[in-house]
Amino acid sequence: DAGVIQSPRHEVTEMGQEVTLRCKPISGHNSLFWYRQTMMRGLELLIYFNNNVPIDDSGMPEDRFSAKMPNASFSTLKIQPSEPRDSAVYFCASSFSGPSYNEQFFGPGTRLTVL
Amino acid sequence: AQTVTQSQPEMSVQEAETVTLSCTYDTSENNYYLFWYKQPPSRQMILVIRQEAYKQQNATENRFSVNFQKAAKSFSLKISDSQLGDTAMYFCAFMANNAGNMLTFGGGTRLMVKP
User: Fold this and answer.
1) What is the rounded distance in angstroms from the CA atom of residue B107 to the CA atom of residue B109?
2) Which of A24, B83, B89, B105 is the most exposed place for a label (fewest CB within 10 A)?
3) Which pairing describes strands A53-56 and A42-50: parallel, antiparallel, or unpaired?
4) Within chain B, how many helices (H) and strands (E) appear?
């Protein structure tokens, strides 16, 4: 099992550019989570999908951020236009959501730098 | 809404000694899980230990154990026989049983194990 796969691992872009982060969850998992980690705010949940449907997007900071999950094996987090304050590490995680607890597995993260 | 607080931004311990990391949380839920995650310099998020709130017995995983005080809403992590590889950020996290596996993280404690 390859685990949760994220790409790219590092992204450097200029303010105003569109940024797309990608995530492939573990096969068989039906829940997917996007987190953002910064020094100031720590780890924050941005959005959560279950069976490809967004369930809770209350953590998405503003309209510049959007996330999609077109199928069970792929999700994107897009920032348009990007700003320097979006610089952070973005994690994707997946789990199987059922009647009992199942561990959430994290990807390696994407370090985004917006100049 | 749940909150998780880690009051120790940084700690250090000598190799082979024992260290305890503190965590408190606030919730109105009765059924939930608590976790400690380790994030080494590689930034990979690794689950260290899990505690179910309905269990009175404290969880233990090899050198890692917790002191779960439900009434006090306290959940500390004890690392025995500290090793250099334990140097990392440690995050306490909360998950309500009915929250679809969504995690709420504390701000983290940076642990340095000194030789």
Assistant:
1) 7
2) B83
3) antiparallel
4) 0, 12
